[in-house]
Amino acid sequence: MTSDTSEVGRKSRQDQPTITVERDGEIAIFRLNRPDRLNAFTMQMGEELRAAFDDTDADDSVRAVVLTGNGRAFCAGADLEAGGSTFDASSAPGAKRAGQDDSVVDSDEVPADEGGKLTLRMFASLKPIVVAVNGPSAGVGVTMTLPADVRIASEDAKFGFVFAARGLVPEAASSWFLPRLVGLPTALQWTIGAKMVPVAEAHERGLIQQVVPKDQVLDTAIAVAREMTANSAPVSAALTRQLLWRMAGAPSPLDAHVADSKAIFYRGQSGDVYEGVMSFLEKRSATYPNTVSADLPEIF
Fold it and tell me: So which domain of life are we looking at (predicted)?
């Protein structure tokens, strides 16, 4: 695996970045990089991750993103260094109010949840996302993984849905994501009960797709990301990801039919489809000419 922080990822405005970005060929690897704090989440970390996803979306040489953590934990949740006022955003200096800049809350009174700004950015990603959960995670350390397409966990991983035990509620739009992954009864059991979920149960209920030894979790995630993209046209992969995620919340199959019809219409005229069909008929590997940055049609 080679490291390259110049091609993908922006340097933090801070002296000490909270993430690092590497490349393994066509796979970008984001590492949460606060191992002394168990990679606890901060506003800076959220900003850096969102900027990194902006970069990978714009870089046609990146086919997929793998997200992992440095050290023994994936992410311990929000950094609690501020103590009991950690989650009180009512008087935070410079707090963005809903309706301003990248805030997504439809109100002029409530600041946007930082975890939600990250998960909505991940939801919009044009590249597949695989998470390598390299150890325990809790709070936003769990909910930030929910918009990923695949989660690979180490044998020592566990998942803390601990919000109610801190007087909070689940954040990061997890009330939308989590039931779609594990079902409503399981989501209710885990979150209302503030449960620390063992990796075996997380795997059984569908939160995790694969459990591997700790020293294999990153390599396995990279292999899964590569397998997902090796034979796929990049534009088709981006559209397919958006279709499946967005239609997961559609009220009717008619919504999916409308979106599918647009995607098929525009893709059917593309050089990718011509190449995909001809390469199949000629029994050779395809070389797709279209790029996500230049040729992604507007279907939503």
Answer: Bacteria
Query: Contact, 77 vs 170, CB < 8 A?
Result: no
Summarize pLDDT for 229-276 with one digit per residue, the tens: 999 999 999 999 999 999 999 999 999 999 999 999 999 999 999 999
Same domain, 159 and 279: no
- What is the SS3 assignment for 129? strand
Return the CATH number at 279.
Answer: 1.10.12.10
Residue 248 and residue 225 share a domain? no
Asked if residues 114 and 43 have their Cβ atoms less than 8 Å apart, the reply is: yes
- For residues 173-183, average pLDDT: 97
Domain that holds residue 273: 234-295
Q: Dmax of the chain from CA atoms? A: 65
Is residue 187 within 8 A of residue 179, CB to CB? The reply is yes
For residue range 60-105, list pLDDT tens digits in order: 999 999 999 999 999 999 876 655 545 556 655 444 443 444 554 6
Amino acid at 34: R
SS3 252: coil
The pTM of this model reads 0.89
- Alpha helices, DSSP H only, in the chain? 43-58, 114-123, 140-143, 174-182, 184-192, 199-205, 217-229, 234-247, 253-268, 271-281, 292-295
Same domain for 143 and 28, yes or no, is yes
Kindly state whether residues 117 and 52 are assigned to the same domain: yes
When divided into structural domains, the chain yields a total of 2
Does the residue 81 lie in any domain? yes
Q: Are 220 and 236 in contact (CB under 8 A)?
A: no
Residues forming a β-bridge with 210: 152
- Give the end of a domain, one of 229, 261, 280: 229
- Does 59 share its domain with 110? yes
Of residues 209 and 12, more confidence is placed in 209
Q: Between β-strands 137-138 and 158-160, what pairing exists: parallel, antiparallel or unpaired?
A: parallel
pLDDT at residue number 100: 42
Quote the tokens at residue 201.
């149960």
